[in-house]
Predict the 3D structure of the following.
Amino acid sequence: MKILSLMTAVLVGAVLIYGTLDMPKWGDPHSPANTHVSPYYLHHSLEHTATPNVVTSVLADYRGYDTLGETTVIFTAGMACILLLRAGRKRRGKGDV
Amino acid sequence: MFEFIVGHYNYWMYVGLMMIGFYAMMAKRNLIKKIIGMNIFQSAIILFYISTSVKKGDVTVPILEHAHDGHGAHAVDIMHYANPLPHVLMLTAIVVMVATLGVAVAVTIMIYRRYQTLEEDEIIMSIRRG
Amino acid sequence: MILPLDFILILFVFICAVAAITIKDLLSAVVILGAYSFLMCLLWTEMAAIDVAFTEASVSASIGTVLMIGCVAKTKRRSKD
């Protein structure tokens, strides 16, 4: 079982390393990730939102619905934790009695 | 060849971290060890995304300088600031990672209350015995 | 980005990851995972991602470690592998 999991992990790693051979070099300023959308945010964030910190302006203004969805995820996780732990305690109490 | 290795070694390091987490998720029998492996896996993927935002040279954090003295908005040199977009997306991913960790911990405590053990093989034996 | 600092930090991250999954004492493994999170936070500061770094330091390294320590305290501390 251990050998099988080790082989699976090494196989996935080998495939991923084969995939990185075509990636742009680390820290290349002209890579596609650095030239496509983010220059727009860097140029316009100050006049649109008057916030010097670009990360917070994108997080709360340009992509506010994304943050709203994230809050929903955290609320769901918190409710799931509370319900799971309370349900377990109640069932165990009944079993003891 | 040396240039290629210096430009790509960080991707290989992240793949190695991901392999450590993946192996721990599959091969370890203890449930808390599996959760630790999941944490390492997620951190490695977030690290990969953050590393795409790095620019070489004279680069600072993505907070605009001279923002409040009136003439900063017209003279933003984008080669001087790191790419802010992966930072935003991974900020969301880190918080979701902790939410996942909380639910996993709750389920682990439930399993311990039901079966009095955290080892996967003992849980399966206990289920088979009825 | 500073290349030698990045290399040294990522080496420490590797050591922490391997130690966290091999140690048999679960409380030690969880504390080493907290150290792993703080080293990751340093790595992100070095990559000029400070917002991500302090989110990691406050959320993942502290709240995550507290959750895991609570889980170990509620269950068993010894592990078989």
